[in-house]
Design goal:
The protein is an alpha+beta fold. It is built from five helices and nine strands.
Length: 211
Amino acid sequence: MYNPNPQRMLKKMFTVLCGVLLLTAGAPVDNGYEVGDTVADFKLKNVDGKMVALSDYKDVKGVIVIFDCNTCPYSKGYNDRIKALHDKYAGQGFPVIAIQPNDPTISPGDSFEEMKKQAEKKGYKFPYLFDETQQVAKAFGATNTPHVFLLKKEGNAFKVAYIGAIDDSAKDASAVTKRYVEDAIEALKKGVAPATTKTKAIGCTIKWRNA
């Protein structure tokens, strides 16, 4: 006569349940661009009201795309460093393009009007674009503010050369020992691949629109 083992049955049920959860909740998701991928063109509204597209950047060697915002403490800590990146490298063919991806209904301090105030107050010399639909952030696979995607121009295409953090000291600029973005740009200028192509982006999570 069959005498089921309760512990064995529970274990089997748990295994089956986990499998179902993996199939339903863990379905493959597009996580965005990886190093080496070609980036699709995008067009977003700048704080001056004009539309800016990636394809507008014809006479560059690459661009430093940074998903950033007004309100995140990490973004505030990196603000001067982002400005310094543009000041240093725009003239060398690698300008900054900053993109604000947060939903203003969740983070009112990141509204388009507040973005305009931020750009004027900080004296931005680079575009500060509003990703109102959040589709560009999703296409890139951006998760945090700030989150950097260094792109290399190859012909008319832009390819991802580095993804991650600006440097290794999110809290204290004076404690920086590794300048990931700068090192990657210097490598590209020499015609070689960056030694480090991906790091963890440290910052606030993007405030995604409620479904």
